[in-house]
Amino acid sequence: MMNLEQELLIRRFPDFQKLAAFGFVKNDNAWQYETLIGEGAFRVLITVSENGVTDGKVLDVFTDEEYVQVRTAGRRGTYAAKIRQDYLQILETIARECFFEIPYLLPQSWRIACAVRQNFGQQETFPFARKPECRAFGQERDSWYALIQPADANALLMREGKTEVLEVRCSPENREELLQRKGFVRPLQMKKGNWIGIILEEMIDDAEIMSLIGQSRRIAEGRNHIAEGRKEWVYPANPRYFDLDHGFSVSDQLYWKQSSKVRVGDLVYLYYGMPFGEIRYLCEVTEADIVNQGRDDGPIRMETLMRIRRLKFFGSHLLNRSLLKKYGFTNFRGPRYMTRELKDKIEELYGKIEV
After folding, report:
1. Each residue of 123-138: pLDDT tens digit?
2. How far is it, in rounded angstroms, from Cα 58 to Cα 318?
3. Could you tell me whether strands 25-27 and 336-337 are parallel, antiparallel, or unpaired per DSSP bridges?
């Protein structure tokens, strides 16, 4: 939730070099500035985090207790109003001297937009003529994977003013789970389909938000794969339950648990779990939607099966967890869409994949 300092610095982000020149001192993961007001009766302490979030306190020099009266606009002419005005003037000077204007309301919105540009090489677009402050990432509406837009803080946070919301695609199961957490809300713009909103007021860590954006992008790409006909998946294989290498040494075709809407002709990359932690095989789906009628499930219940044919073995352990993490693959609890970026990397390492 925004405080007085953050509300004053809306649409601004710090220039850390200018903070240092102004007199801020680096302390751990934040920059701090101190000065006195009220003829030396109060100490001002302003902190700017590495994420660009500003906080501040006015402390009584004698008691070292916070002077909370600066948080409310009292009657003009009173002593408290004078101290508040002195404090606001310091904040306004710092904003003018040490911050630059950004096209977003909040620091987290700006950081996330910059990270999307850097990670995915895409600039935001302005898809709605009547909502010029709504920005989308993705070429066409069917391929949008993130939108950032202002929102009424009263409706979402029970306070006056504006906030900013990021909307991303997600699975129905993940959506309902996330909605139970603080900071996640139902989408305001993309109400059709499986989208979720994230309030960009530092309630959710940047790393988690970028992970959700990566998942959203893969979902959007999956929709495009459907339009093209063939889909490409990454499926997990747990070595505790099945010896994948032995299975393919016996036969080039295996029955596998089907837990997504695969179709005959789709490609399946098999991620062999820890202690191996790597994509090891590429397969083609030769049969799908097979009702399990007596095949041994072992420890995993398999109501629906598919049959996959081995096309390629990825040797040399190049597609390991370290590489996959760079392309947004950090969770292998279920099937996921292969991304264009990771497939290009695989073909760079192993050559063009011919099916």
Report:
1. 888 988 889 899 999 8
2. 55
3. unpaired
What number of CA atoms fall less than 13 Å from residue 236's CA on the CB side? 18
Question: What pTM value is reported for the model?
Answer: 0.63
Residues 6+ apart with CB under 8 A from 16: 31, 48
Calculate the alpha carbon distances from 343 to 97, 128, 272 in Å. Answer: 46, 33, 17
- Predicted confidence (pLDDT) at residue 260 exceeds the cutoff of 80: no
User: Phi/psi at 41 (nearest 5 deg)?
Assistant: -80, -20
Across the beta sheet with 54-60, what order do the strands follow? Answer: 25-27, 30-37, 42-49, 54-60
What pLDDT band is residue 297 in, cutting at 50, 70 and 90?
A: low
pLDDT over threshold 80, residue 193: no
Query: What whole-number distance in Å separates Cα of residue 257 and Cα of residue 241?
Result: 12
Confidence of residue 227 (pLDDT cuts 50, 70, 90): very low
Mean pLDDT of the chain: 87
H/E run at residue 305:
strand 304-313
Report the distance separating Cα 276 and Cα 249, nearest Å: 18
- Token match 């390629």: residue? 312
H helices of 158-287, in order, are 172-178, 206-228, 244-250
| Residue among 55, 19, 94, 85 at smallest CA distance from 45 | 55
Using CA atoms, how far apart are residues 342 and 323, in angstroms rounded to an integer?
9
Instruction: Answer for the pair 126, 132: CB distance below 8 angstroms, yes or no.
Output: yes
Assess contact for 338 and 269: CB atoms under 8 A.
Answer: yes
Between the alpha carbon of residue 132 and those of residues 115, 148, 309, the distances in Å are 21, 11, 50
List domains and CATH numbers for the chain.
4-100 (no CATH), 107-227 (3.90.1150.30), 230-350 (3.10.590.10)
The tens digit of pLDDT for each residue in 315-331 reads 889 999 888 888 878 77
Rounded Cα–Cα distance for residues 218 and 228 (Å):
15
List, in sequence order, every residue forming a beta bridge with 50; answer none if it has no partner. Answer: none
